[in-house]
Description:
The chain is α/β, with parallel strands linked by helices and 295 residues long. Helix content is 44%, strand content 17%. It has helices at 29-32, 34-43, 46-51, 82-91, 109-123, 136-145, 165-168, 182-191, 197-214, 233-242, 261-294; strands at 8-24, 58-60, 99-104, 128-133, 150-154, 217-230. It has a 6-stranded mixed β-sheet. The longest helix is centred in the last third of the chain and has 34 residues, at 261-294. The protein is globular.
Amino acid sequence: RLQKLDYLTVLPKFSAGLPTYLQFNLENKRFADVRVRQAMLYAIDRKAIIETVKQGAGELLNTLFPQDWARAKDLEPYGYNPDKAKQLLADAGWDASQQVDFIYYYSDQMNVDTVTAIQSYLAAVGVNIEPRLLDPAAINQVYADGSFQMGFFANGMGLDPSLGSPLVVCGAKPLGFGYCNPKVDELFNKGLESNDRATRAASYQEASRILNQELPKAWLWNEVRPLYEERHCFARAGLNRRYGDADQPATGPVRADLLGQGHRDLEAELHAVVDLEHRLADERRREVARDRRYH
């Protein structure tokens, strides 16, 4: 409907900076073999889920970073291949008779349907998950008591690839789940040594290749959201006159009040998130600088 409004330009697939993935406890021997994790990705027709269940609200992702400039171009695509998934599981000695406790916390219908689709695809290759919808407190308890096995999650990374470190660096708590590759840590630290994107890209792209092969998480897709923008300033001026604000400049984004209080709240929230991301990235750079002084 919004695309039919003559005063708005709608970008239907604007990155939300939100990688979505299957999460594994790598300290559980069932998931320690990378072939098992690779099989999970080959088993799931991610493209079909995006096009049907998610109605296009996602773009395939095969490594950690939602930022295109941080991803190498030669990654394994993990296209839908259930036969290959079955072979990898057989080679890894997977026991299909054992159920897998599979937790998630998104209760909206689209995500419930997504988990159901994932369950069906995995069952077809001999991975039998038992999905459980838990609230955040219950999930934290599962993490704390060591009983976590596998789940469906997402983690907001926003504007900078350095913000993905809590998922993959050595000793990351609570989301590392036993993954540790010192080379990945080294590349994350190196990526914070410069403000030049081209220089940083080399480090993050190398890390993206490692994570694409080792799959500490089985990345499914990056969430995308529609972005609305004023088509041209003349439309803006007309809107201002129409809504009794003729003195307001005919430039900038369309007035948020034309789209409702929810959009004004969202705009304020986005500004706060961007500010927080910048401060976290600055703090991370300072930590790296301190570490280098003392070691």
